[in-house]
């Protein structure tokens, strides 16, 4: 059984994401746990864990849309056979509360977003060398799935992260430190309707993250400048074409 845990204070978003998962799961045994009064994402997700009965637990933002829904379930289940935790973007070398700070060649995944300046949409591509990238240390919180064994050993730190930032990097890094196998999967193309905000609130929780984990991070000798690949698109169909897994024949 699959348990999906979603936090939302937006009625339209809540209804939309619930229907999206129901459509993708079909007859697959599942439950959708909706938390509508979260004091923080860590606190709410822990409440969801306490209620969940599934063998696989999914933690999801309420403003995402998977662009290849017909293949989503089979691909996700195949990945969960090989890994304890999978997400959509992350790094094999965590150096900062913002996982993307590691830069190439340590960051992987791809995420579509509304753009609106040059094209209606854009794809942010970190690196997609294959359908699953192992040895991940930290991941983005827009979506990740874990086996029940993970949450039996690791919980969200709702005391330290009592807001809405850095809970995801903390949880995924804690899962990595506990010895579980994490992977970024690149064959579940997704669009995320919102973008991250690195404001004063984020900095506050970033400082808490560093106080907790600084000694375990892989700080480099220097930070190299880099720029991620961004591809514009006019339609969701074009997004899927850009993000579709490639079967290269050399």
Can you characterise this structure?
The protein has a single domain (2-243), classed as Alpha-Beta Complex (Spore Coat Polysaccharide Biosynthesis Protein SpsA, Chain A), CATH 3.90.550.10. The longest helix is centred in the N-terminal third of the chain and has 15 residues, at 11-25. Helices cover 32% and strands 25% of the residues. The strands form 3 sheets. Strands 2-1-3-11-5-12-9 form a 7-stranded mixed β-sheet, with helices on both faces. The protein has 250 residues and is α+β, with helices and mostly antiparallel strands. Helix 1 (11-25) links the parallel strand 1 and strand 2 (30-35). It has helices spanning 11-25, 41-51, 69-82, 148-153, 167-177, 200-213, 236-243; strands spanning 2-7, 30-35, 56-60, 64-66, 85-87, 89-91, 107-114, 121-127, 132-133, 138-139, 143-147, 182-185, 190-192, 229-233.
**Helix content, binned percent:** 25-40%
Element order, helices and strands?
EHEHEEHEEEEEEEHHEEHEH
Structural class, from secondary structure content? alpha+beta
Number of domains: 1
Which residues sit in consecutive blocks of at least 5 with pLDDT less than 50?
none
Q: What is the CA-atom radius of gyration, in angstroms?
A: 17 Å
Shape, principal axes of CA atoms: globular
Give the CATH topology: Spore Coat Polysaccharide Biosynthesis Protein SpsA, Chain A
Our count of helices gives: 7
Percent strand: 15-25%
CATH architecture, by name, is Alpha-Beta Complex
| Highest-level CATH class | Alpha Beta
Averaged pLDDT, please? 95
CATH superfamily: Spore Coat Polysaccharide Biosynthesis Protein SpsA, Chain A
**Can you count the beta strands?**
14
Let me know the largest β-sheet.
Answer: 7 strands, mixed
Biggest sheet, spatial arrangement of strands: 2-1-3-11-5-12-9
């Amino acid at each position: 059984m699959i348990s999906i845990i979603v936090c939302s204070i937006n009625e339209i978003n809540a209804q939309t994401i619930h229907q999206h998962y129901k459509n993708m799961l079909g007859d697959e045994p599942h439950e959708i746990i909706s938390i509508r009064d979260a004091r923080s994402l860590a606190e709410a997700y822990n409440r969801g864990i306490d209620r969940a009965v599934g063998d696989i637990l999914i933690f999801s933002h309420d403003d995402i849309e998977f662009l290849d829904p017909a293949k989503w379930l089979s691909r996700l289940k195949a990945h969960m056979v090989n890994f304890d935790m999978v997400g959509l973007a992350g790094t094999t070398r965590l150096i900062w509360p913002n996982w993307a700070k590691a830069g190439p060649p340590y960051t992987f995944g791809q995420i579509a977003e509304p753009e609106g300046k040059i094209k209606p949409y854009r794809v942010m591509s970190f690196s997609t060398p294959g359908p699953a990238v192992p040895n991940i240390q930290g991941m983005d919180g827009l979506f990740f799935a874990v086996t029940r064994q993970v949450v039996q050993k690791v919980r969200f730190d709702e005391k330290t992260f009592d807001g809405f930032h850095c809970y995801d990097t903390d949880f995924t890094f804690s899962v990595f430190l506990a010895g579980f196998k994490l992977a970024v999967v690149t064959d579940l193309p997704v669009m995320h309707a919102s973008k991250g905000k690195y404001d004063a609130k984020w900095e506050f929780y970033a400082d808490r993250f560093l106080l907790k984990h600084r000694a375990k991070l892989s700080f480099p000798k220097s930070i190299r400048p880099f720029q991620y690949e961004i591809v514009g698109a006019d339609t969701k169909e074009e997004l899927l074409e850009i993000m579709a897994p490639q079967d290269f024949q050399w």
